[in-house]
Amino acid sequence: MKFGVIRFPGSNCDQDAFYTIRDVLGQPVEYVWHEDVSVKGYDCLVLPGGFSYGDYLRTGAIARFSPVMEAVRAHAEKGRFVLGICNGFQILCEAHLLPGALVRNRGLKFVCRQVHLRVENAGTPWTCKAREGQVLRMPLAHGEGCYVAEPEVLEELNRERRALFRYCDAWGQVTDEANPNGSLENIAGIANRGFNVLGMMPHPERASEKVLGSADGRILFESIVRTLQAV
Amino acid sequence: MPRVKVYVTLKPTLLDAQGRVVQNALHNLGYRDVEQVRIGKYIEMDVAAGPDLERSVNEMCERLLANPVIENYRFEVEP
User: Fold this and answer.
1) Facing A103 at nearest CB: one of B14, B21, B65
2) What's the pTM value of the predicted model, to 2 decimals?
């Protein structure tokens, strides 16, 4: 099993993801440069948070054309795993590996705080160690995290149970007050049809140890490790 | 060399949070007849003339300059 953390110019959560995988989970991991054209040998690729290319034009719009992204697409098409966190989620949407888009937060503020997420589907490679309805606490830090999609796309996401996480309050109630950025139906993270690609705005890699305020993000990484061990 | 002017706007179905704030600011300045403000992007490019210019600019908009999931675009070419 090997993880790869992709570094784009302007990535800034790459070391947090790397640390979580290597030091907290004890799994092999390497950095992958955005100019690399091969991702051979990696089972799970992580597109970390940050501000790739200074968020110029639109978040993720330039990074999506990085040389490595062709290899990421091929990797995903083979059913291999890809996790996009925050800016990584924005890049995956721009690359059309995930549907919809992330726009400026309702309220315009850059939101940086702990949020609660409800696990909506525990039968996926990313959530198999969680309970359905479990409330996870992890931080969020973004200016453009308001998830939008066409009504048909939203309907499909709901029908196929691909909205894996929704913003909720501490008791698991999905309310408008618990929605930090105005995302449609409080969506915080979605998977593709095959559930091998996941994008989410909150940061599980920044919630991997109690000393960081929460270790709930580990559930997600432990889930994917269990999935890969079973393959 | 032809100058291409591209206008990118958020689709009308999406809430333009920035536009809403600017509209409120205009109201506060007394311009109460402003009923809607939408903020977009304006991109100017100098592109070598060629028979495929319009098709090529259209492709640039579809692939990079706009995100067709959330934005509309139009452009003008000044010879």
Assistant:
1) B14
2) 0.95
pLDDT in tens, A52-73: 999 999 999 999 999 999 999 9
What are the residue boundaries of the structural domains of chain A, listed by start? 3-230
Taken in order of first residue, the domains within chain B and their CATH numbers are: 3-78 (3.30.1280.10)
A156 catalytic, yes or no? no
Catalytic (active site) residue A168: no
Tell if the CB–CB gap between B64 and A148 is shorter than 8 Å.
no
CATH number of A3-230: 3.40.50.880
Each residue's pLDDT tens digit, A124-135: 999 999 999 999
3-state SS, chain B, equals CCEEEEEEEECCCCCCHHHHHHHHHHHHCCCCCCCCCCCCEEEEEECCCCCCHHHHHHHHHHHHHCCCCCEEEEEEEEC
Question: Is the pLDDT at A231 greater than 80, yes or no?
Answer: no
Concerning whether A86 is annotated as a catalytic residue, the answer is yes
Contact between A65 and B64 using a beta-carbon 8 Å cutoff: yes
